[in-house]
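Sharing a chain and its predicted structure for anyone who wants a worked example. Both blocks are below, sequence first, tokens second.
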Amino acid sequence: MKNPAVIVDANHNNSGKKWDQQPRIVKEILHSMRHSVDVAGLVKGVMIESYIEDGNQPVGGGCYGKSITDPCLGWEKSERLLLEMAELL
């Protein structure tokens, strides 16, 4: 393969399906990228499950902006993570 690339899912199995662990996973990826040229060349991005409110709820749960599917990182935590990522890159 000439140009291998990977986008790492910070949620699901990488975080043990614990949505609030996504910032830690992202920081570990960035740490690995800083310490390995091979990893830095391979990783092209990360996927973060993000929505307006933290977590999730059942359909009809009554909280506007909270996922009814996968648990998500809320807007404020997502914004903070993006700003921290920018500083680390």
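Comments welcome. Residues 6-88 form one domain.
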